[in-house]
Design goal:
This protein has about 100 residues and is mainly alpha-helical. The chain contains four helices and three strands; from the N terminus they run βαβαβαα. The chain has a single domain, classed as 3-Layer(aba) Sandwich (Cobalt-precorrin-4 Transmethylase, domain 1). Helix content is about 40%, strand content about 10%.
Amino acid sequence: MIAAEDTRRLRRLLDRLDIETKARILSYFEGNEARRADELVRLLEDGARVVVVSDAGMPSVSDPGYRLVAAAIAGGFRVTAVPGPSAVLVCSGGLRPPC
């Protein structure tokens, strides 16, 4: 499952990088974050892997994701952040970054 802040941007990025995915892609932005977080945690409970892709910045700092990250951690799920433009935030935070 890929939860993307902007599904159109994600598809353009995947196309540009010549990456094909069979994963279901759904929108996950500020306007639907609360509702989607519950849905995504249920998917985690069912054994799915969930990837959150933000447009820029750091998920749960300046982008959607806080509710999902908090609920996933509370549920005992492992949360990993892959740094992008805000790698300094990942490496200095409490997540398990690949720094």
